[in-house]
Amino acid sequence: MFSVLLPTDFSENSRNAIDYAVQLLQHEECTFYVFNAYTPVIYHVEYVLGYPAQFGLADAVRNTSQNNLNELVTSLTDTYNNPHHKFETFARFDTLVFGIKEFVDEHKIDFVVMGTKGATGAKEVLFGSNTVHVFKEVKCPVLAVPSDFAFEAPHEILFPTDLDVSYDDSNLKILKELVASNHARLNALHVSTGYELTEKQKGHKEKLEFLFKDFAFLYHEVKTTEIPKAIHEFQIKHKINLLVMINNKHSFFENLFFKKTINQIGFHLNVPFMVIPSEV
């Protein structure tokens, strides 16, 4: 059984991500935690310092959040009516990123699914800032769904790798389950920047091939120095509908996405993107 956290701000963007998650896991036993982190727009200093009761503001905002959550779950239940799925709601006074982080730590969450939109005013961006912070702070897999992505089963999954990460059944468990449940093909992509594989990289490649020996698995090597461009071109050419990466400190993932500002990345995201911590 999967335990999946579904953060929502009740926007169309977050609803689209929730719909994607429910359809992606339609054949799996799941508990979905539909989660809203709320912060009053206006409040007194005393409220922050620990005296909210006298103002009554917390109750009003919380009740609105809870009512919206209840309406959302009713809509999901009516739309999908899936006996494999159970929904629980949580309204929490917190910021989005820290609320998700604490919820994941408190509960045994297998992965988080959230909507993402590019930063306003930037033509070429990877994600909005909240999504980037969740990737960095949350110690479980996070699946980000673009706001305009209509659900399609992930039959072609792209897994770019620098082969510097040690793979095992724990950090690739969720990927193996998604490959299996969707009868998908996993395309491992190594972007070579002119150097031969080290012995360590060769060992990691062999381990990766072993872990997916019972699945449809293809290894690809592309020679270029422009890693984002190589990933994007491969994604288009092979009709990829799910992108998965492992985030390891000092890995090419971190260098690719977190060493530059969001407006400098120049990486087009038009399919769902899962980020897996190297240690989960």
Oligomer: single chain
The N- to C-terminal Cα distance equals: 17 Å
- Named at the architecture level, the CATH assignment of the largest domain is 3-Layer(aba) Sandwich
Low-pLDDT stretches are 120-126, 259-267
Output the CATH homologous superfamily of the largest domain: HUPs
Please give the order of strands in the largest beta sheet: 3-2-1-4-5-10-9-6-7-8
Q: How many individual helices?
A: 9
String of helices and strands:
EHEHHEHEHEEHEHEHEHE
- Main sheet, how many strands, which sense, barrel? 10 strands, mixed
Helix fraction? 25-40%
Count of DSSP E strands? 10
- Domain count: 2
Query: Do you know the CATH topology of the largest domain?
Result: Rossmann fold
Give Rg in angstroms.
20 Å
Round the mean pLDDT to the nearest integer and report it. 84
CATH class group of the largest domain: Alpha Beta
Shape: elongated
Which structural class do the helices and strands define?
alpha/beta
Percentage of residues in strands = 15-25%
Q: Any overview of this molecule?
A:
The protein has helices at 12-24, 45-48, 57-80, 96-106, 129-137, 173-181, 199-211, 227-237, 252-257, and strands spanning 2-7, 30-38, 85-93, 111-116, 142-146, 156-160, 185-192, 216-223, 242-247, 273-277. It is α/β, with parallel strands linked by helices and 280 residues long. The protein folds into two domains: 2-146, HUPs (Rossmann fold, 3-Layer(aba) Sandwich); 156-265, 3-Layer(aba) Sandwich (Rossmann fold), CATH 3.40.50. Strands 3-2-1-4-5-10-9-6-7-8 form a ten-stranded mixed beta sheet, with helices on both faces. Strand 1, helix 1 (12-24) and strand 2 (30-38) form a beta-alpha-beta unit. Helix 4 (96-106) runs parallel beside helix 5 (129-137). It starts with a strand and ends with a strand.
